[in-house]
Structures are given as structure tokens and as C-alpha cells.
Amino acid sequence: MCNHLEAGDGNKINSETEITMESKKIKNRTEFFVYILAVLGLIVAVNYMGTRSFKRHDMTEGKEYSISKATKKILKGLDDIVTVKVFFSKNLPPHMNRTVTDVKDILSEYSAYAGKNLRITWEDPADNEDAKQLARSLGIPEIQLQTVEKDKAQVINGYLGIAVLFADKKEALPVVQNLQNLEYDLTMAIMKVSRTTTPKIGIVKVDTFPSVPLQLRGQMKNPESTEEKFAKLIQELESNYEVSTVDLSEGKPVDKDIKTLIIPGIINMTDRKAFEIDQFFMNGGNLIVMADAVTVNFQYGANAVPQESKLLDVLEFYGVRVEKNLILDPSCSQVQVPQQVGPFQMNVAVPYPYFIRLDQKSFNKDITAVSTLTDVIFPWASSLTLLVDQPKSDSTENSTQDGVKATVLARSSEKSWLASGHYDLNPQQKWAVPQEGELKEHSVIAYLNGNFKSYFADKSIPPVHSPATDDTTLNKINLQPSGEDAGRQVVTSNINGHLVVIGDADFVAGQNANQTANMALIQNTVDWLSLDDNLISVRTRAIKDRTIEADLLKADSSRPLVIRLVNIVGMPLLVIIIGMIIFINRKETVPVISSTRKTENTGK
Length: 604
Prior knowledge:
Blueprint: H1 2-52, H2 69-76, E1 82-88, H3 97-114, E2 118-123, H4 129-137, E3 143-149, E4 152-158, E5 160-166, E6 169-173, H5 182-194, E7 200-204, H6 214-219, H7 226-229, H8 231-238, E8 242-246, E9 258-263, H9 271-282, E10 286-290, E11 294-297, E12 303-306, H10 310-318, E13 320-322, E14 326-328, E15 332-341, E16 344-358, H11 368-371, E17 376-379, E18 384-386, E19 403-411, E20 417-419, E21 443-453, H12 467-470, H13 473-478, E22 493-502, H14 516-530, H15 536-540, H16 559-603
Parallel strand pairs: 1-2, 7-8, 7-9, 9-10, 10-22
Antiparallel strand pairs: 1-5, 3-4, 5-6, 11-12, 13-18, 14-20, 15-16, 16-17, 19-21, 21-22
């Protein structure tokens, strides 16, 4: 009986246990489903909030995967709908997948900040004849792309362009290739179609020969014209501005619609030309003067000649003197020099201190136009002396510009020195570096701002043609006296004027213009004076200074070699050592586990 009761009690207990376990299972399932629903609800809520408020934590140097504050400001400031049409083919090669993903990411971020005022559409012209015609009309070409399928190289046709539209304006990015500049190009396109007017920029004509056909000018053996010498600069500025060449030889006032006037040199600057520049400045225009007080020419071998120019006197009156010297700096660029190596002649790169290199430490971090620049090369640059807004110990001269403030935008390194009088330009010489006491920084870019007085305030208007200064047959033909000066009044002051002086004009001429940072410097300066500094940080964010050793004249420096050895040899050795340690630890651990298991089995 007892056994029977015990068995019944056991069945009852088992039954209750099963019910309890079943209840727990149901409860666990319910909690699991509730948990899943809560997670899904949280994800939905986070995604919804993400569409309203976009946040991203970018840990890369320069925030390369996030749009800048300048872009956000422009997008939030849109007051009407701007349309972005993306013409990407679906059958792009596999190696282009990253481009498509990055473009989608950046456009999603643009949409988050612009809201309803930015409309983005994606189209594949390959599948739609109307879309193909539309792409062609917007300047988006069909391109050929290489791909490899089944171990066979093939060429396919596709589209990889973006068009930005607003009202009757359009801007195109024909082929999206450089993702580093995508934000700048896209934001600039949006800004250009949405703005009401296009600022005008003037570049003063510094050559003296008349405008004749190229073939005839070649027969005359004249040097290249201003348009040819600064072709790259003009081309880059024309993407954002209306650019015109200003000829001052006729003695006519500079167009007042020009926002900023660039003077790319000081040669052939007569009194009348200097007067027209002064009056443009006094009427509220901005000035960028690239003043090379020492000119280097190669007509009879490399030689340097100090220049005499009326514009130098005008700049000194404004408060900055361009010294007739050349800066040498061990932080410099290199030049190719032919050398005999055995039976062969080869070009060998050698340091050239006359080509000074401005790195991140050289630029003023408080001025947006230059704060992010690096690796700018100035060939044969002259130093600047500020005569206004300086301590008495720095400038003993009295300046007539009492209401002007001066700011140095860029300096050479603290180990630079000066050459004047005699210039040995031979790149193969043994450079004699002065003692430490003679080495110091030298200003190469200066910004002056304030209430300027005119250089010609108490002077008569210079004649268009002055026999004393430019008595040549060419000038007699083209420079006729003008009677328009009779009723012209000299503007004697400028309120809140902006003047930038650069001690070099060659850094954006010829091959030097191909230096990305050089062009970024002049573009940033023009943007700073003519527009605002919104896009300056975007343009230069991809420019990075990766130089290991800036002082190329330091022969005993072993730092570059050590860094190279660490990267080439040290890192692979480190990976091998870590792998061996992991392998040895695993080998020692396995027998211990096997012995333990064997003991447990024997015990059982």
C-alpha cells in the first residue's frame, strides 16, 4: 500500500513538474517574442530618428567619410528644390562597387541635412533610351569600362555621372572617379546652380606685346602671354567664377563689377598701371598681388635680377615691403639634374633650397583660407616685411596706414636664410648653410585689412603714355593719350579694404601650377576674398603631408631609414612572432586537456 501511495505521489509530482516546465517554456517563449518585438521596435525607432537627425562617428584623419560643416551649412540653407540625377549603370564592373556604395552613402547624408529641398533620383540610361538622351543633353557621356569575366578581359559601356539641376541651370560631374573630391565637386555644383549671380575675377595682363595670333607671335620670338603662362590658374578659376584678363595699358579704369583682381607679377608696371590698380582697390575691390621682386630667367644661363617696379612702391605705401632677396630653406623641394652614371646620362633628384616647401607648420592656423594647407612649393620666393600693425622693435619705420592691420599667413621654416646681391642658382653646389643665429622664419604671404589711403591721394593722375618710363615703338603704337582723365577724380581712401601679398608669382605658372597644393592656395585665397570660406576646408581636406624628413639637407638623419625598415621588416616580423606565440600556446594546451579527459574516463 505504501509502495502504491509512493508511486502515485511520484506520478503526481512528475505531472506537476511537467506542467511547471511547460509553463516555464511558454513563459520563456513569450518573453523571447516580447524581446524580439522590443528589439525590432527599437531598430525601427532608431532608423526613424536617423532619417530626422543624421549622426555619424568618423574616426579617420580629416573625417574623410563624413560631410563637412561647410556642406551642411549650404544644404540647410537651400530655400528651393535642387534635383540631383545620378546616371549609374547597373552592370558596372565589380571593382566599381565601392564607388557606387560611397556615392549612395554621401547622397544619403546630403538628403538627411537638406531635407525636402534636395531631390535625388537614380537612373540607368542603358535600359532607357529617354534617360540616355537626357544624360547626353546634361553632359553625362557613355564611357567604356574594363572588366574581367571568366579569366577574360572585356570592355563594357556604362554611365558613371551625376547632374545637378535647379530651374534652368545645370552642372554636371561627367565621370565620378576621384571620391576624395566628390564632396567638394558635388557641393560646389549645388552652390553654383542655386546662387543668383556669378562673381567676376580679373587677372592683370603682365606681358607687353599686343594681342596677335599665336603663329605670328611665335615668329616674333616673344615670351608666352599672360593667358598662356597662367592657363591652368584661369582654367581652375573659371569653374567657379567669371574670369577675364584685364589690360591696363590703355589707361582705362578696371571694371567695378570685378570682385577680386589678381596681379601675377610686377614687371612692366608703369605709373599709370599702378594708378588703375590703386583706384580699383580704393573703390572697394579686393587685391591679390603675387610680387616677385627678384626675377629668374634662363636666357643666358640661370640668373636672378632684382626688379624695379612702381607697384613695389605702392605696396610699401600700403604697409608691406617685398624685399629684393631670395629665401633658401632646407625644407625644400627637389629638382631633376642630369648626371653621368657610367656610360649613361640620367636625371637625378637633388634638394634645391630655392624651392622652399611650406608644410602644415608654415601656415596660420587661425585663417581658414590657409589653415588646412600643406606641401606648397614656392620657387624663388622673396621675403615680406610688414610696416603696419607691428611692434616698434620689429619695424622702426613710420607707416602712413594707421587704420590697417597686418597678418602673416605663411612663413618659411625656422632654419631658412636669405640670399641677396649675388645669387648662385646652381642646384649641384655644396650648400653653405649659415650659423644658427642667422637662421629664422621669413614671411612669404601677408594679409592686410583696414582703412587704406591711396598712394596717389596727393598726386596728379599719371598719363597713359609716359616717354620717361616706356618709350618704345610698341607703346607708341598702342598707348595713345586719353582725354577722359580731365573730369576724373582720384579716390583717396578705401574703407575695410582687403589685400593679400605673396612673395612669389611663379608658384602658379607653368609646371608649378600642376602642384595640387599650389593651386589650392590661390583658389582658397580667391574664395576667401570673393565668396566666403565655406568650401575652403572641403577642397583641402584630402591634401595630406606625408613627408618623413622635411630638412633635405640634413645628411646624417637616419629617421627616414628607420621608419622604412620598421614598415618593411618590422611589421611582418611582428605578425610572425604573434603567430608563433599563439601556435606554441595551443600546442602546450592540447596534451593537458587530453590527460584530464583520460583521468575522468578511468574514474568512471
